[in-house]
Specification:
57% of the residues lie in helices and 4% in strands. By secondary structure, it is mainly alpha-helical. It has a domain at 105-212: Cytochrome P450-Terp, domain 2 (Cytochrome p450-Terp, domain 2, Orthogonal Bundle). It has a three-stranded antiparallel sheet. A hairpin with a 2-residue loop joins β1 and β2 (19-22). α10 (172-188) runs antiparallel to α11 (196-206). It is globular and about 60 Å long. The structure holds coenzyme A.
Length: 255
């Protein structure tokens, strides 16, 4: 039978009738003792964060929960509800909008931090190599709406400093990101400040999360806002709401 039992192999959960253990801990010991953010960490990584690591991790999760119906994912969720979809379908529609351009900058910014950390040369050269491979827009910096400053980023970076002082992280990636920010400002001759994706990327990198997990964690965080907006739309009603009020039309381009 081992060809059957070995089909799926996991160190996440062990279970038999009447017993559930997650990462080696009985579920009844976790319930009531472990918060949701710590549970995410435990499930994904298999170990437990220190209290200082946990509060930094939780701050990153809190910071990205919502960015309003201007965000395509939130608008998609609300539109989906007005099309008659249930909450799970609305949430899935929204999460499916999170790609390389919308919601993906955090993963790219962790990759950038790792690239700079491992680069044999100065920061300017490291950035040039990155730009040659990935294009001139540096992930995690700049914001279309929050000018001059994305209010989430300075607060998160303040928390990284506190965590560093408490020994929860080294501050290496925070320093890299600050150097990138300074280099960008120098090159453009105007500030292009770190945004929420840049700051959460610093946190995830400092805490040792692999780049793809930055996107997965962003999806968990943004799902909170997606659920809230979906539910609000359910309560508001509305049928078949498209992206603009119907009196506005697209621009027809004649061939
Ligand atoms: C968010 C974003 C689209 C805003 O772009 P924007 O509205 O054009 O920003 P600005 O008008 O302030 O840009 C001013 C200049 O800085 C450049 N710039 C903006 N963000 C930049 C970045 N991250 N890297 C390099 N250059 C950037 C612009 O190209 C522009 O240059 P130009 O005048 O030579 O064309 C852009 O900053 C970006 O793509 N950032 C990276 C992706 C990211 O982190 N997204 C998550 C946002 S929360």
């Amino acid at each position: 039978m081992s060809d059957v039992s070995d089909w799926w192999q996991t160190s996440i959960i062990d279970m038999e009738p009447g017993r559930i253990e997650l990462r080696g801990q009985p579920i009844q010991d976790l319930i009531g003792n472990v918060g949701f953010a710590e549970m995410i960490w435990l499930m994904v990584r298999g170990d437990r964060p220190t209290p200082d690591q946990l509060s930094l991790f939780e701050a990153a999760l809190v910071s990205a929960v919502d960015h309003g119906p201007q965000a395509p994912s939130i608008a998609a969720a609300r539109m989906a509800v007005t099309c008659g979809l249930s909450l799970n379908n609305a949430m899935a529609s929204a999460v499916n909008m999170l790609g390389d351009v919308h919601g993906g900058a955090g993963e790219q910014a962790v990759e950038l931090c790792h690239h700079i950390q491992g680069f044999d040369g100065d920061l300017g050269q490291a950035l040039d190599v990155w730009i040659a491979d990935n294009g001139k827009i540096i992930p995690g910096f700049g914001h279309r709406f929050h000018k001059p400053v994305d209010p989430r980023a300075p607060r998160l970076m303040e928390m990284v400093q506190e965590a560093m002082q408490a020994g929860a992280c080294t501050g290496e990636f925070s320093q890299i990101a600050q150097h990138v920010e300074a280099e960008l400002a120098n090159r453009k001759q105007e500030p292009i400040p770190m945004n929420v994706d840049g700051a959460t990327a610093v946190i995830y990198a400092e805490l040792g999360f692999a780049p793809p997990l930055a996107r997965g964690l962003f999806c968990i965080s943004r799902s909170v806002g997606i659920l809230a907006h979906s539910w609000e739309q359910v309560q508001q009603g509305g049928r078949n709401k498209g992206p603009t009020p119907p009196k506005y039309r697209w621009t027809f381009t004649k061939d």
